[in-house]
Amino acid sequence: MMQFKLNGNDVMVPEDSNLLEYLREDACLTSVKNGCGEGACGACMVLVDGKAQRACILTTTKVQGKAVLTVEGLSEREKEVYAWAFAEAGAVQCGFCIPGMVISAKALLDQNANPSPAEIKKALQGNICRCTGYVKIEKAIAMAAKALREGIIPPAENSCRVGRRAPRIDAREKVLGTGEYVDDLKVKGMLYGAVLRSKYPRALVKRIDVAVARAYPGVEAVLTAGDIPGERFLGHIIHDWPVMIAEGEETRYVGDALALVAASSKTAARQALQLIQVEYEERTPLLSPQEALADRAPQLHPSGNLLARTVLKRGNATAAIAQAKYVVSHKYTTPPTEHAFLEPESALAVPEKDGTLTVYTGGQSVYDEHHGIVAMLGVPGETVRVISKLVGGGFGGKEDLSVQHHAALLAWHTQKPVKLTLSRSESILVHPKRHPMELEFTTACDEQGRITAVQAYIVADKGAYASLGGPVMQRACTHAAGPYQIKNVDIVGIGVYTNNPPAGAFRGFGVTQSCFAMESNLNELAEQLGLSPWEIRFRNAIEPGMVLPNGQIADAGTAFKETLLAVKAVFDTHPGAGIACAMKNSGLGVGVPDVGRVKIKVLGGRALVCTSAACMGQGLATVMLQIVAETTGLGEDSIQVHVPDTAITPDGGTSTASRQTVFTGEAARQAALALKEDLRSHSLAELEGREYYREYQGITDPMNSDKPNPVSHVAYGYATQVVVLDEAGRIEKIVAAHDIGRAINPTTVEGQIEGGVVMGMGYALTEDFPLEKGVPTAKFGTLGLLRCGTVPVIECLLVEKNLDPLAYGAKGIGEIVCIPTAPAIAGAYYRRDGKLRTSLPLPETPYSRTRRT
Ligand code: FES
Ligand code: FES
To answer: Which residues line ligand 1 at a C-beta cut-off of 6 Å?
Structure first.
């Protein structure tokens, strides 16, 4: 019997167990999160006798006789201070890391009431945040220290109008750990799901024998492909991803599911997996696009191995290159990247008494999840309801079904609630990554440094399944020539199926890769011309009324040049500074139906804003509240934002393509205008029960439209980032100037920029996702994610010039923030040592690691 104090109370634990497991499952403490289970992320941080320690690598025996403290055990005063400081500083995004950060902060402040910035950084070295870039977390801790020292909590920003730094409405519950992520849920009689994955990237599955597993004590169901009542192949656009691999079928990657187990305990479910017998015939996997496109290569899908081919042609690039005074041509390679959102995937499916199924999820679109589950079960849409809980980060990696359909199928068969949560290693194995690409870029210009042509050939390794590979290839191509006025472009991109993990959406959506190539070529061109890297960009920069490389005319709100001017002083005063620019669309564009939908319902004397748009950490609910408050004049207390729920909230589309602030934001503005009209003659109470529903549809032209100037996307954001190295070659400062149209909430926008820049730094310098014959070898701790001690000064410059009333002029910011960072860093090293680095992570920098395989 182990005995220790937990949050001031004596507890007795009958047998030794993992401390994190005990705290979450037995003590039901939800502030302690399982981000990795392997001691790398710090989301499980607790105080043990006043020292910050990771609960996932402790056992109850190790804390015998000691005092364990979690966020739930903080004094009321401390809770108030930390909740205020983190909300006010804008330190909370997805929130999954935050209680762990609070514990590390408490460990520091209990010893040192007035820590220096360096001491705060040191105290956070055991905690990873994937969202914020740490800047505002460090600020929040300094604010908390001051408030605790002085005993005063200054008043919070009290306006929630557009343009104000309103604190996030979900900050408090995330700081204190009371907000619910799916894995925090428990329901009576709940079973635990587990999934048997393929042993090989490519193998014929000859036989799956589940008889022994089915008989294992505690097991309630073992399902295989034959147990799927509806469609077995799912997917966003192309339905090529099997819910489970069937006998007689080949596996396509090591994340493929072969069988599902539901059992009364996690242990029983895992044990049962070991008892499933699979007879494989191992086959040689296709590990590169070249292998997959070779003559007589086996076809991984009935349609062949070429998933997508995108062509963007305007003018005559070949002729322009032949006539150009200066031409630069290089081949670049970029690696796959893991999203590393802090919350591993989890879903809970609950059969209801009326024969329906409710699925609690934490993805990027409840309606996408709904479509997939309904198709798989072969039932009418109303049979399934999907409700989102808090989402612990996504970045594109939670757009595909990962656990939702499996939990649903198990619950459907057992008619019992089933929760399925991936371990970190499974999460890394299963969900799609950022596309690895090979990019051959030729860029030409005249004597004045005007770019005359860009020719590019881009090959992406799609991995096993399409996911969003087609649209990613399109964006890589449509944005390949950057935000410049270039008349001749010839861009071809292909995506090729292989037996590597699937590639899909990832913040930047293909543009992170092509921007690295284009901007790096520009640096060499500038050198040949004797121009500064700033000057060549300024001479070619797109302005309102000019034609973008894809043919679209830049609108009046285009403020790209303003971002270049905003960084000119810092660029000029640091002779070796690197610089890069980018553009990124808001919305799906290219003629794809794209609609934001919002219903405002007056309920209980408040305006309830209903939208299915997912908040994965970007602060969407607060943005919606600010837009409705600004439009109607109602105060924050009179407005509430509903969680995404397919039974209540209209389909606002996926949180992807930097679209929600614009699309759902505009729908919210229009719905709020209708409410405002009624508020002229009625009080809110008098409007009880009324509903105001509006849609905003972005009208765009398809790829390769025959219009001379097609509208590819409804809006573009533009950015310039500058990187300053210190004498040792480490990054001292990054200045990020972004044309954001208009900041609905400047604190939120800065948080996106800081987080995106740090993610971009990781992409540039340390992050990698090595594969050994198609099998990922990385653990969470070896992905190369940056910790706060590595983060330099990040200065955000917001350019707001868009007068368009659409969504108050806001443009999407979610993706562009991490696009120019890698080439800007590459540019700084190029200026430092003259070596053009053509691969990521950049070789030969002070950050370079030995590649792990
Ligand atoms: S869950 Fe313990 S360190 Fe990540
Ligand atoms: S807020 Fe830190 S991981 Fe999301």
So the answer is: 34-37, 39-44, 54, 56
